[in-house]
From TrEMBL:
Annotated protein name in UniProt: Leucine-rich repeat-containing N-terminal plant-type domain-containing protein
GO biological process terms, semicolon-separated: defense response; response to other organism
Pfam family, one: LRR_14
Organism: Lactuca saligna
Domain Leucine-rich repeat-containing N-terminal plant-type: 32-70
Keyword field contains Transcription: no
Sequence similarity: Belongs to the polygalacturonase-inhibiting protein family.
Localisation per UniProt entry: Cell membrane
Major localisation: membrane
InterPro entries according to UniProt: Leu-rich_rpt, Leu-rich_rpt_typical-subtyp, LRR_dom_sf, LRR_N_plant-typ, LRR_R13L4/SHOC2-like, PGIP
Length: 309
């Protein structure tokens, strides 16, 4: 029985559609596809369902969930794999494959909320020299922060919060003069904080680690800083007076440390500040009160409870 002509028409239309797609979007670079397949191979359980879409030759077709490509070159520029923070049933189990370091034109790498994604941050990531965003939040990554991340000169956002990372902050992060945001909260980082001068930094969250020593005076030079959270660490010594130079600061939290001495009086001059948390230290009051809550006469909310020695 001959096929009805409408079937032929639909097939023609479908194949034309396919042809025009192939012309506008070059299929993905074979090197990049191999790097992504290498990642997939190290994940032995994926309840997010993302990786089951990574099939076929063309990783730039739009079918591969989370993959963004340059429309002209067909090189992968973005890998964005986001789990949900609320839903514990969604996760990836396995390790982050070093092959992702072969995605040489990558600008954005986000693998977050995958909960059971373990192993170390591959040292091969130091080769991702075009990377602007590296976000590996809320996984189960172990080991230290690779020294080689200091080679990612274009990096603006570095977030590794919510993992099991240990050791100190690498000194090499001082090379990253374009960094706007650093979030390393909720890890097990330790050692003293030898913080570099990153003039353009706007956001620094190091809360819930085991960092010790004094709070670096140099933090007071980050004039664009709006958010600074060093709470829940083991910082000791005095609050550096230099922090009172941070005119754009909106949130400052230093609570739950081992800080001593007087709270700098000039802190009352920070007009942008909306929250100041100093509770659970051994500070002497500059506010004339040792109670929780709002201290009258200051333009911001102070969460403050002092234990006098
Ligand atoms: C601070 O921010 C302003 C406005 O975005 C910018 O022009 C300036 O270069 C920044 N300062 C530094 C030190 O990066």
């Amino acid at each position: 029985m001959p096929k009805p002509s409408w079937v032929f028409k639909i097939l023609t239309i479908l194949s034309l559609f396919h042809l025009s797609q192939a012309q506008t979007t070059p299929s993905c670079s074979e090197v990049d596809r191999a790097a992504l397949i290498g990642f997939k191979a190290r994940i032995f359980k994926d309840t997010s369902g993302i990786l089951s879409s990574w099939v076929g030759k063309d990783c730039c077709s739009g079918d591969w969930v989370g993959i963004q490509c340059d429309a002209v070159t067909g090189r992968v520029t973005g890998v964005v794999l986001q789990g949900s923070s609320g839903n514990n049933a969604l996760y990836m189990k396995g390790i982050i494959s070093p092959t992702l370091g072969e995605l040489k034109l990558l600008k954005v790498l986000v693998i977050s909320g995958m909960k059971k994604l373990s192993g170390v941050i591959p040292s091969s990531f130091s080769g991702l020299i075009h990377l602007q965003q590296l976000v590996l939040e809320d996984n189960s990554l172990k080991g230290t922060i690779p020294v080689g991340l200091g080679q990612l000169k274009s990096l603006q956002t570095l977030s590794l919060s919510g993992n099991y990372l240990t050791g100190p902050l690498p000194q090499t992060l001082g090379n990253l003069k374009n960094l706007l945001q650093i979030n390393l909260a909720r890890n097990s980082l330790s050692g003293t904080l030898k913080f570099p001068n990153l003039g353009s930094l706007e956001y620094l969250d190091l809360s819930y680690n085991m960092l010790s020593g004094t709070i670096p005076t140099v933090l007071g030079l980050q004039s664009n800083m709006t958010f600074l959270d060093l709470s829940n660490n083991r910082f000791s010594g005095q609050i550096p007076d230099s922090l009172c130079n941070l005119k754009n600061l909106v949130d400052l939290s230093l609570s739950n440390n081992l800080l001593t001495g007087q709270v700098p009086a000039r802190i009352g001059q920070l007009k942008s500040l909306s929250t100041l948390s100093l509770g659970f230290n051994m500070l002497k009051s500059a506010f004339g009160s040792f109670e929780w809550g709002v201290i009258k006469g200051y333009p911001f909310v102070i969460v403050y409870r002092s234990f006098l020695q």
